[in-house]
Amino acid sequence: MSQTLLVQISDLHIREPGRLAYGRINTAPYLANAVQAINQLPQPADAVIITGDLTDFGRAAEYEHLQQLLAPLKVPVYMLPGNHDERNNLSQFFPSHDYLAQTTENGHSQYVVSIGPMKLIALDTSEIGQSSGRLCVKRLAWLKQALDDNADFPVIVAMHHPPFNTLIGHMDLIGLLEGAKELEALLKQYSNVERVICGHLHRAIETRFGGTIASTCPAPAHQVCLDLSPDAESAWCLEPPAMQIHAWDHQAQRLVTHLSYIGQYEGPYPFHEMGKLID
Predict the structure, then answer these.
(1) Given this model, what pLDDT does residue 279 score?
(2) Range of the domain at 197
(3) What average pLDDT score do residues 58-80 get?
(4) How many domains, the chain?
(5) Which domain CATH number covers 267?
(6) Closest listed residue to residue 243, CA positions, set 231, 255, 258
(7) Helices within 106-196 (DSSP H only)
(8) Strand (E) positions, the chain?
(9) φ and ψ at 7, to 5 degrees?
(10) CA proximity to 37, closest of 269, 240, 260
(11) Assuming Cys at both sites, which of 191, 244, 245, 255 could form a disulfide with 8, CB separation 3.0 to 4.6 Å?
């Protein structure tokens, strides 16, 4: 294959079977659609990363439901906790996911795995009982060691809370409130970091950060409303569900990211017919 594909989905907010998130939306069918879309990609994915908020309340029954919904995926799945997750329940219901046992000394779920020629470094930004995130000295020290150990590989750093202001005021108030400046200074030292990929925002957002590109991923169900007012209402909407495909180009030696909408849409239709432009 000339590419290695890492699919990113995020912010699933799975509830117990039959329960609605926010009293309005059943997120489970949306995740089932995302799983189907991943399995049907024209170029097969090599792995899937889920960047946090796997469940809505971190309850055991939610992870059991999540396990059932993810079971049809045909490729390896890597997960990291978000502010809606509970680490112990996550590990309990995914015992075969050995990487989840790679916790730091203060109990955070952080790990390094290989995706083709790339290294995926998962960084845990969540704090128990808090919607906002932080990166403490210990977590940043762990990341530095991971970056040093993988300096000869293209690296993707995955985390839940984005380390930059998105200009969506109510989300920035619960963003990464500690460690962002230190993270940016650290990443500037490593030219092999291709991306910093995040969740939390339920939208596709990107910016320059630490000498690379940092981005957030849309959700397979509900999205955060796009309103850049500092005092915008905290609200969600049903814009088209989507995921991101991070494709390592083996020939050009660079990462190319595509936003891919989930669902059934008209087409494909040819631009040309019998070699001629259709009039």
Answers:
(1) 62
(2) 3-277
(3) 97
(4) 1
(5) 3.60.21.10
(6) 258
(7) 137-149, 169-172, 180-187
(8) 3-9, 47-51, 77-80, 111-115, 118-122, 133-134, 155-158, 176-178, 193-198, 205-209, 212-216, 223-224, 236-237, 242-249, 254-261, 272-273, 276-277
(9) -90, 135
(10) 260
(11) 244
